[in-house]
Write a structure and sequence with these properties.
- By secondary structure, the chain is an all-alpha fold.
- The chain has helices at residues 3-9, 14-27, 34-60, 77-97, 99-116, 126-148, 153-157, 160-176, 185-191, 196-200, 202-227, 230-256, 263-286.
Length: 288
């Protein structure tokens, strides 16, 4: 396999999406063994997400920095083939876990392709693209993870806790996703992708993210006070403090100089926020 193919799969990027799975694991009503949880984790983070990354890279053919790659190499037909192969393996593996889970993995893969493929390319529409990411990487992924962990489709809708958790996951992504596009405005515009961040502008993206993050945090605080304990509210806020500090510091830099909205700082925010959320949700899943 070519080095460029491995790079475009962006396996480390799965770390940024891990909080959604850990949150699902924390709220799962069915007790799972470590092997069962690990199996669902591998399907999503080692197969499904890299397949989506590779497929997206193949059709985007980015020359500038993208999430997880500062200088992306040229794509090849091998990347396209490998991304499809990973999808086939993911669906096959999922079928051994449960058929409903395999069906949801298939749906997720089709939506991710519709997001990138030039004949549909949901990515070019600011609102539709934004909602697609927020709903499918948030609500749908929590639901999908829970089904993989043993929750039935119908049981999911009978439990308000699970629905609230899924909605909150989407809210957090709807706020954070525009920030991942803030340094790509020029290349997105040249390619005809009118992303929500491009429509909002650089400062507008910061303001938009701050507003949604505020309401998302209120929602999480209510959720933890309602279904857990007040101590979880304070822990959640404590784990988010580094994110808020860096976001505020970066915002002040960008107000002085728009070029500060660059790849390096975007990745720093992703790393800090993902690390903090992963640690908190891991605590919720394995300790609390």
């Amino acid at each position: 396999m070519k080095k460029s193919t491995i790079q475009h799969l962006r396996l480390p990027f799965s770390f940024f999406l891990m909080p959604v799975f850990l949150f699902a694991l924390a709220v799962a009503p069915v007790e799972n063994t470590l092997m069962e949880a690990l199996s669902v984790f591998i399907v999503l983070h080692i197969l499904v997400y890299p397949a989506s990354n590779g497929y997206n890279s193949f059709f985007d053919k980015d020359e500038g920095s993208i999430g997880g790659l500062k200088a992306p190499p040229k794509v090849t037909k091998e990347l396209y083939a490998v991304s499809l192969l990973l999808d086939v393996i993911a669906i096959s593996w999922s079928a051994f876990i449960s058929l409903p889970f395999a069906f949801m993995v298939l749906i997720y893969g089709l939506i991710s392709k519709a997001y990138s493929h030039p004949s549909i390319r949901l990515k070019r529409y600011p609102i539709i693209g934004w909602l697609t990411i927020g709903v499918f990487q948030g609500f749908f992924t929590v639901w999908m993870s829970l089904v993989g962990l043993g929750t039935s489709w119908l049981e999911f809708f009978d439990q308000p806790l699970l629905i609230y958790a899924s909605v909150l996951a989407s809210f957090l992504l709807l706020g954070s996703y525009p920030m991942t596009q803030v340094y790509q405005h020029e290349e997105d515009a040249e390619r005809g992708d009118r992303t929500i961040s491009l429509k909002l502008g650089i400062l507008g993206t910061f303001h938009f993210t701050a507003i949604l993050f505020f309401f998302s945090s209120i929602g999480y605080m209510w959720f933890f006070s309602r279904y857990y304990a007040l101590t979880h509210v304070f822990l959640f806020l404590a784990f988010l403090t580094p994110v808020l500090l860096f976001f505020g510091y970066w915002y002040l830099q960008v107000r002085k100089d728009r070029t500060a909205a660059d790849f390096e700082r975007t990745m720093k925010l992703n790393v800090i926020s993902s690390t903090c959320l992963n640690l908190f949700f891991a605590y919720l899943a394995f300790v609390s």
